[in-house]
Amino acid sequence: MPKPQLDGVDLPPLTGWALILGASSGFGAACAQALAAAGMDIIGVHLDRRAAQAKVDRVTSAIRALDREAWYYNTNAADPRRRVQVLDDVKRRLGARGQGETVRVLLHSIAFGTLRPYLPTPEIAPVSQKQLEMTCDVMAHSLLYWVQDLLARGLLEREARIFAMTSTGAREVWPGYGAVSAAKAALESHVRQLARELGPLGITVNAICAGVTDTPALDKMPEREAMIAAALRKNPSRRLTRPEDVASALVALAQPCTYWMNGNVIHVDGGEGHSG
């Protein structure tokens, strides 16, 4: 296997297992392939209809072509029963290998929530309590529940790296983004608290804030084209962030030498978030 590189700089190979929530497209798929190229085996959780299976197959085939394991589960990562089923199966399969393996990298990259205004408009009904609670549960609280259940099963390695995908929408106001903004703000709060409580175990927890990226999640935004235009204007490189940009950063951040980076929101956006 070729030695992993980041912009021409040699990186030590990574080892162990990465668990990626939202692993079939966008950031999750790119990170799965980059971590596999760096030497990690991948456990992926995704929720896709049968029509999207070809896309999932391409991702898993790319991982296996690198001679890495790819255990993918097509299920709802925010469903407590399904979470238990996945982790029980992972524990069984890892135990059968007899090598004492655990999860070294956890990436929360679930993008599923409602994009409705808080107040009614002539065209759109306002967000409901059920929709708001679902959005926060899926995009924020599920991170905490996966961490709790991994720890309860002894599946989270000491000095593990936990990452959660956030966005500048946690602090900005975009049309229809209120529920997701609340979820992202809660997600960042969970990151800080988990960083505090997991610190004694040497486990770090950080949020990754990518720039505007052309992913399936962006396609659902009410003002997609305006967001793209603003990002292109603000970004010093005059291009959008790509999933591969985030994946490269994640490989670097997963290195053992990043043990003192904890509880942060790390911007991977080419300077977009700090440009006028």
Largest sheet geometry:
7 strands, parallel
Structural domain count:
1
The strands making up the biggest β-sheet line up spatially as: 5-4-3-6-7-8-9
Model regions low in confidence, pLDDT < 50 over at least 5 residues:
1-5
CATH class: Alpha Beta
CATH superfamily: NAD(P)-binding Rossmann-like Domain
Which percent bin holds the helix content? 40-55%
Distance between the termini: 43 Å
CATH topology: Rossmann fold
Question: In words, what does this structure look like?
Answer:
With 276 residues, the chain is an alpha/beta fold. The protein has one domain (5-269): 3-Layer(aba) Sandwich (Rossmann fold). 41% of the residues lie in helices and 17% in strands. The protein has a seven-stranded parallel sheet, with helices on both faces. A two-stranded antiparallel sheet has the order 1-2. Strand 7, helix 5 and strand 8 (204-210) form a beta-alpha-beta unit. Helix 1 packs across helix 8, helix 3 (80-97) runs parallel beside helix 4 (129-152) and helix 4 (129-152) packs parallel to helix 5 (178-198). The radius of gyration is 18 Å and the shape is globular. Mean pLDDT is 92; it is low at 1-5.
